[in-house]
Specification:
Elements lengths: L1 E2 L6 E2 L32 H28 L6 H20 L5 H22 L5 H24 L4 H14 L2 H7 L6 H22 L1 H11 L2
Antiparallel strand pairs: 1-2
Helix pairs in contact: 1-2, 2-3, 3-4, 3-5, 4-5, 4-7, 5-7, 6-7
């Protein structure tokens, strides 16, 4: 049997990673039980071929956009949007399809990288402020709602999502900060994003009570 030092649980099969916190388990002690659900057989050759094909097509698309933009340059570097968009899609898709990654982590990464990408696009097209006025508050509002829905659906595992909920809720106050330093000028979306984040944090501490505090201490190591 293997044990997890963080969760203090015992694993009797041949797993090497803790199913709760994804930490590496201790060395096996005593006899191990075969896995009840063996890993499905997947033809990795077809998967790797498809992955290489998509990478090759992405390189062609990015290179073609750079060449066309260079030959027809009129002061607008639209090819950078294409190249950065391709890189963004690869990062997001690779992170999203990974089975071992917490779904709350996927929401956080997509919200954060999506915000950065949108600001970059806004900057490249002449910066009109629509990214910080409308899109970023909407992204973090949607992320707040999504994480709450996941917790309500899977209440038994809410501890696995709590840290990401806390971080996403804090990022939901970013539009308020941008508004206070006059980088955005749309108070409606700021109020919506800030209110959802405040309600998310408030609900967590009210309904979680002492459990939330102890879980935060355990995960943040303080």
């Amino acid at each position: 049997m293997r044990t997890c030092a963080k969760c203090n649980v015992g694993i009797i099969d041949t797993a090497e990673i803790c199913p709760l916190c994804k930490s590496v388990l201790s060395e096996a002690k005593g006899p191990e039980t075969p896995n009840a659900f063996p890993a499905p057989e997947i033809d990795s050759r077809q998967y790797h071929f498809l992955k290489r094909l998509l990478i090759f097509m992405s390189v062609i698309a990015g290179s073609a956009s750079l060449i066309i933009n260079f030959l027809t340059f009129d002061g607008f570097l639209w090819s950078l949007i294409t190249v950065v968009g391709i890189l963004y899609l690869w990062v997001v898709i690779s992170h999203s399809v990974a089975n071992h990654i917490n779904i709350a982590s996927k929401i956080f990464v997509q919200a954060f990288l999506g915000s950065v990408f949108i600001v970059l696009v806004d900057y490249l097209v002449g910066y009109r402020g629509w990214s910080v006025n409308y899109v970023i508050p909407s992204i973090f509002s949607a992320a707040d709602i999504a994480i709450v829905i996941i917790i309500l659906i899977n209440r038994m595992n809410w501890r696995n999502y709590m840290l990401y909920q806390f971080v996403i809720a804090l990022l939901g106050f970013a539009p308020l900060l941008l508004y206070l330093i006059r980088l955005s000028d749309n108070p409606i979306f700021v109020i919506i994003s800030t209110s959802l984040s405040a309600l998310s944090l408030l609900g967590t501490f009210i309904f979680g009570d002492k459990t939330v505090k102890s879980e935060l201490r355990r995960r943040l190591h303080f």
